C-alpha cells in the first residue's frame, strides 16, 4: 500500500481520481486539499462518495504532502510546478494532471499558458506520461506530466503510422476534427458552461488556437521516427452536449510507402497486448458511450481512398484522457499491475 | 405601434421578450438596458437575433424609459419597484417579470425576498397579471406583477374547481409536485447550474421552502370563491435536465360536492374560448415539448378515485410562464388582440 | 466460483448484469442466451464489453442452463415461469428480473400482465428479493422474484414507518410521484422511445394504471406490521430525459403516534449497517447522479408540517432497481459477501 | 391564397411543414396524407398543433391532390417520382423533400437509393431547389428537388469560392466533417434511434459511404464556374445528442488565386441581401442553437494559414435543411415574398 495525496480535489478530475483510487487495491488516499473547502467532508460536496470515504478537504501543507509516496495535482495550470521541488526533495513523486510538465518547449509554455515556468530543471527530468508510448521512462520517473485529453487521442491514433519503418503519412496533411463532452472544461462557475447554454447545441471553439495544439505538435515530433515537422497540422475542437466522452476524427494523406502496408494489421500489431487501447475491426465506429467511465481508448480505421486514411479515436476525457491515465502512470511508477484499479467496464447505456 | 423598453435584457426572459416582441405587429422595441453590456449589440450576445434587430444595450436612463409606452422589467427581484413611480408619473406602464408586484402581503415579500418594499402604495394599485382570471382588471392596469412560472400552472390548473358554485376540493389536501427545466433558474454563472451538474440528473430542490409557495397560497386565496385557506398546501419543485418546460402534477382530494359534477366538462366550459389554455381530453398526458416556445398551457384531468383528482399542467416556463404571459398582459393593457405576436406553434420535435 | 447463466442478454438489464458479473470475484458467466442473436459475440453488440469477455449469445437450451448454479432471467414477463421447474429440478437456482415471481396474488398477475401463471406452486415457494427487508428468506430461496424498480424505492422509502411498533403513517394518504430515466422502458424499437421524442421533454405516463401499482400495494401489505390496506395509494410515474436514474417523491400523512418519534433517527437506526441504503442528513436532496451506475439507494426525509412527511428516494433504476439488486440476491443465496461485485462508486459527473 | 397538400405527414419534416405552413399568410393546407393514420386528427398525433388546425390524415388520393396548387412530398425516397406525372398533368406543382429529384445522374440515383427512376423525363425538367444559388430557375419550376440537409450546408458554405472569377480552392482537398442532431434520421421505430442509445453519446456514421456524398459531388460540380471535379472530396457525418441542428466543418486548401482575395468580403458580398444566409464576422463560431427552429444558415470563416480555410456552417436540419427551404422554394414558385411564413426567430435558449 502506498499513501497518496491529491491537491485540488473539488474539480472533476479530482473527484474522478477519488472514484478510482478509493477502490484501488494498493492505495491509501490520505490527503485531499482545497483552498476553499478545507474542513468540509468530501462526500458532502460529492454525495456519490458517501459510504466510501471519511476524507475531509484540508489546506495544502507541504509537510503533510511530503509524507505521501505520490501526489496528484488536479489543479489549474501553474500549481504543480511551484511544489514539485519540495516534494521531490522528500522523495515524493509527482503526477501533474495540468500542463506544467507537458511541454518541453518553454517558449510555447509561456505563450499558451501565460506563465513563466517555475522549475525548468525539473521539467527537463520529467516524463510525458503517455503510458503506451513511454512506458519504460515512466517506470523510472519522479515527475509525470499527464497528457492532455485531446493529445492522448491524437498520439495513440497516429503512433503506428509515425513509428513504422517508413513514414506512412504526410505530416502537413493532418487534420484533427475533435469533439468533447462538456466536463472537459472543468467544474467552474462560468456563464458559457451553464446547462441552458450547452444542451441541445453544438459548436466549434478555439478554432483560432487551442492550448492542446502545441502539445500535439511537440508530442508527435517526439513520437515520429522520421524527424517530421507537424507545425502545420490543423486542430479544431468542438463541444458536444454530453457530460463525458471525446471523439477525434483524424484525416491524413498517406505516403507512397503506405501502399504496401496493411494498416489494420499494423495497428493491431502495434497495440497487441495493451490493456487500454482497443483496435476495433476495420470500418467500425467507436462510440464514446462504449468507454464511459472506463480507462479505455478505442481506435477504428477507414481507408476510404488509396491515399486517404480516417482514424476515429474515442475515449472518456475524464478517465483515459485524465484521471485514469494518471493512475496508469502511478501503477507503472510503483510497479503495480498496470491495470490495477482500472478494470471497470464502461457504463452502457 | 407602441414603443417598448426592456430593463435587463441579458437574461433568458429578456431575450425571450425580444424573440417575441421583435415580431409583434404593434410594437417597436426602442430600449434595452444592461448594467454590464451597455454599448454592445444585442445580437452579438444572442446571435439568434442577427438579422432581426440593430438594438444595442444601453445604461438604464429613466428619462429615456419615460418616453416608452410600456417598460418590461426582466430583472432580478427588487429593481422594478425602485423605478415604477418615475415611470408611472410619465404615463409609462410597467410590467414586472420579477416578484415586486406579485405578493400583496408585504410581510411575506420581505420574508421571502429579503427586501423592504420600495413602493407599497403602487403595489396596492398593481394588478396580478394572470390574464385568464384577471382580464378586466389588467385592461385597466398601470402596473402588472407578472405571475411566477409555477404559480401560473397551479392557478390555471385549479381555478375551475375553486370558482365553482360550491368548493369542489379540500384546500388542505393540495399537493403540487412540480418539475421545471433548467432555464427557469435564469442565466447566471453559478456552479450549480453548469451543464455537467445538471445533465442526466434529476433532483428535488427547495423542499424546505420556495419563493413561489407564498405566491401560490395568496393567489389561490384570491381565486377561491369560498374563503378557503391554502396555507398548508405542499409544493415541491424538481429540476429536469431539459432547457425549457414545466409540468405540475397536482393532487387534490375532492369534496362531496364534486360527486355531482362532470369535472372534464367543468374545465372545458371554464376555459371555453381561451387562446392559451388547452383542456385536453380526459386521460391525456400533456408533454412539455408540445408547448416548447409557445404561449400555451395544457391541462389534463385524471380522476382516479371517486374523491381523488390529479391535474396535470404543462407550459413553457419562459413563455406562458414568463415572457409570453407578460406580452399577453401588454396586449390586454393596450387593447391589442390578445394573441398578437403570440400565435407561434410549439417546436416539436 | 459459481457458474451463471443469463437468459435474455440483449436488453439493458442483461448487459448491466454482464457489466457487473464479469468483474464479480466469485462468478463465471457461462451462458448468455438470445433468440435473435445466437452465434454473435456479445461484445459486437455491446462494444463496452470488448476486452472483458469472449461470450457469444446462444439459443436457450435447458440442458445447458441446468448445469449452471444459478440462472438470471433478464427477459420479458412470462419467460422465467416456463423454465423454473426444469431448472429447480436440476438444482439450479432462479432469479427472475421480470414480474413472474413478484406478485403472490394470481388474479392481479393475470390482470396486469395478461398471462396465466405457469407455475403457481413454485410461485408460492418463491421469495420476493428485496434484500434489506427479506434477507433471511432470500438466503434459503431457490427462486427469487427481483423487485420492480419503482416498488424498490417505495418499500425502502416507507419500511421504517411501516415496521415501527405503532403504525406511523396513514396508508390511505400515500402519494408516490415517481420519475424515471428512459432506460427503464428497456431496449426496444418503438416510436415512443426514440431520442427526438424524449429529449428535452417531460411527461407523466401510465397515470390510469401501471403494473408496479399492484406490486407496491401487495408489497407494502407484507412489510406493514399493522395489517394496513394500501389499495388506495396513488402512484404516478413520469419520464425524465436522462438515461439512468429514478427519484420517488413520496408524500404521507403521519399518525398521532409519529409525534413522539424522531423520524430521522428511526430511519438511521433501521438502515444501520446496510451497505446499499444511505439515509442522508435531514433536509438533503438526493440526486440521481449520485448513484449512477452504483448499487445504492439514497433516502432523505423532509418533515414539513407536524403531520406531513416527504420521503425522497433515489436509485439507479438499472442497478439497485434491477441488475445490482439481482446480484445482491445471488450473493445472499450463495453466502458470498453481500457487496461482492457491487462496490463500484457512482459515476459523477 | 394557394391550396397545399402534404403527402406523408407523420414524419418530422411533415410536422415541421405544418408548423410553418399553418401560420403562412398565403397558404391553405387542405390535404395531409398518411398510409397508416387516415381518419385520425393530426393534432392527436402532434399535440403541439392543438388549437391550430382541424386537419385529419387522409389516404393518398391523386384526384384530391390534383386540386391543390402545390404538393409537398415529405415521404421516403421513391414516392414522389411515382405521382409527379399525374400532378403535373393537372397543373399541380411538386416539391419533393426526399431524393427523387436531387440527382440528375440516374446511375448514381439507382446505386445509392436502390430504385429505378420512375420518371427520368420529369427529372430532367426538375429544378434543384437551393434558392440562393438557383433562384431564377426555381421561379419557373414545376418540380423541385429540395436539397438534402448536409448538401445545403456544403453548397452554401463553398459557393462564393467556387463561383469567383478564378477557382479559389483545390477541389481534391475538400474535407467535410459534418455533425447532425438525431431528428435528421427521421421518425422511425428503430433500435439505433432510441433515447438510451443516443443520449450522452457521440459517434461517426456512414463513414464508408453516405447518400449525401453523391449529391454533394454533383451539386458542387454544377455550382463551380470552373469545370472542377469533386469526386475525391471526403464527407464524414457524425451524430450529436441533440434533437435539431447541424454543423459542417469544412476544410479546404486554397489556390494561389486566393492570396489576392479578401475572403470575408467575398462571402459578405456574395450573400448580400439574402434573408436566410448570414455571414458572421470573421472568427465567429456559429452555434446550432442560434438557428433552432429558424430558416437560417450561418457561416463563419477561419483562414488559419495562408492556404488553409475552415468554413463553419450551421443550420437547423429540419428548417433550412428541409421544411423551411421547401417553403422558401414554394414562395419563389408562387411569387410570394421569399420570407413569407419564414420570419420566425430561433429559439434560444
From TrEMBL, chains A, B, C, D:
Pfam families: Semialdhyde_dh, Semialdhyde_dhC_1. It is found in: Cytoplasm. The active site is at residue 149. Keywords: Amino-acid biosynthesis, Arginine biosynthesis, Cytoplasm, NADP, Oxidoreductase. GO terms for cellular component: cytoplasm. Its main location: cytoplasm. CDD domains: AGPR_1_C, AGPR_1_N. InterPro entries: AGPR (IPR050085), AGPR_AS (IPR023013), AGPR_dimerisation_dom (IPR058924), AGPR_type-1 (IPR000706), NAD(P)-bd_dom_sf (IPR036291), Semialdehyde_DH_NAD-bd (IPR000534). Pathway: Amino-acid biosynthesis; L-arginine biosynthesis; N(2)-acetyl-L-ornithine from L-glutamate: step 3/4. It catalyses: N-acetyl-L-glutamate 5-semialdehyde + phosphate + NADP(+) = N-acetyl-L-glutamyl 5-phosphate + NADPH + H(+). It is an enzyme of class 1 (oxidoreductase). One of its GO terms (molecular function) is NAD binding. PANTHER family: N-ACETYL-GAMMA-GLUTAMYL-PHOSPHATE REDUCTASE, CHLOROPLASTIC-RELATED, N-ACETYL-GAMMA-GLUTAMYL-PHOSPHATE REDUCTASE, CHLOROPLASTIC-RELATED-RELATED. NCBIfam families: argC. This is N-acetyl-gamma-glutamyl-phosphate reductase. It comes from Acinetobacter rudis CIP 110305.
